[in-house]
């Protein structure tokens, strides 16, 4: 469950790619079209909200291309494409648009997600923490909607057994402060302490570390598909090149609901989001089928 196109690739792209490659059914639900995003492709500048207001439609194609790179084919928009509009950053006038996701009725929006759960019967759900990871209103609303939907779906017996929230350990942020200090386009420039970030989770609260470094290229390809939002000169690509596959291929989560499974990763963290769950092996393809 993500707020805008590109959020899925940035924060969970490696995880999605890994489970898709393993044969798990991966469903992405995105809450808005990202209409208020900045545009980094000059020839597309007139698609912006203040101009033709066509960016959202364009980003549908970017999202589908990104998910194709990740191997994910089940791509949905909450309530259908265009149901909810990108709310913009917190405090912006766009927060008050009646169609803004920030203004969505909680139970109505959750009901749309429950419909997806009835169909897909997820064992695991991933979304953001109550702060929306960094405070964006659509991320906060996605958290609220996802958690309410899980509650409603569980009452029907179709809800997820485990719920994870995206996270970044403070130890990783601390290492980044030092490792990136002298790089061009340092994203941490001017930051002296990990406590200055609007995000960061104490290591003791991390439950899972997904190592999908072998799918680093898939995540990079997914990011590149979101060309209007992530410029070619983005520090993401520069740092990925400088610091290797781990920068792109390792993702972290806290466990918000369900029983923590056995962990054989660093710090005893789970290395599999399905740890402790009964999981059916993917059925082998029938002879001659495609």
UniProtKB/TrEMBL annotation:
It catalyses: 1D-myo-inositol 2-acetamido-2-deoxy-alpha-D-glucopyranoside + H2O = 1D-myo-inositol 2-amino-2-deoxy-alpha-D-glucopyranoside + acetate. SUPFAM superfamilies: LmbE-like. Its cofactor is Zn(2+). Zn(2+) binds at residues 4, 7, 139. Signal peptide: none annotated. Pfam families: PIG-L. The keyword Translocase does not apply. The keyword Zinc applies. HAMAP family: MshB. Belongs to the MshB deacetylase family. This is 1D-myo-inositol 2-acetamido-2-deoxy-alpha-D-glucopyranoside deacetylase. It comes from Asanoa siamensis.
């Amino acid at each position: 469950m993500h707020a805008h196109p590109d959020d899925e690739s940035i924060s969970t792209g490696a995880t999605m790619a890994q489970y898709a490659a393993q044969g798990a059914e991966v469903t992405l639900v995105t809450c808005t079209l990202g209409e208020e995003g900045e545009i980094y492709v000059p020839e597309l500048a007139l698609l912006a909200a203040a101009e033709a207001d066509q960016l959202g439609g364009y980003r549908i194609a970017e999202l589908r291309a990104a998910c194709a790179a990740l191997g994910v084919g089940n791509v949905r928009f909450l309530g259908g494409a265009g149901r909810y509009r990108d709310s913009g950053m917190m405090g912006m006038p766009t927060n008050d648009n009646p169609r803004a996701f920030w203004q969505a009725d909680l139970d109505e929006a959750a009901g749309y997600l429950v419909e997806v759960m009835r169909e897909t019967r997820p064992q695991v759900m991933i979304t953001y923490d109550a702060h929306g990871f960094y405070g964006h209103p659509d991320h906060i609303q996605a958290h609220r909607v996802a958690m309410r939907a899980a509650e409603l779906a569980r009452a029907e017996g179709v809800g997820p057994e485990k719920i994870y929230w995206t996270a970044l350990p403070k130890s990783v942020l601390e290492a980044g402060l030092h490792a990136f200090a002298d790089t061009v386009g340092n994203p941490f420039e001017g930051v002296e302490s990990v406590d200055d970030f609007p995000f960061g989770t104490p290591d003791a609260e991390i439950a899972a570390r997904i190592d999908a470094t072998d799918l680093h290229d898939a995540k990079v390809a997914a990011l590149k598909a979101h060309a209007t939002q992530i410029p070619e000169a983005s520090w993401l690509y520069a740092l990925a090149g400088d610091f290797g596959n781990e920068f792109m291929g390792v993702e972290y989560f806290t466990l918000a609901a369900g029983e923590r499974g056995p962990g054989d990763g660093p710090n005893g963290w789970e290395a599999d989001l399905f740890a402790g769950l009964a999981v059916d092996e993917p059925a082998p393809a029938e002879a001659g089928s495609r």
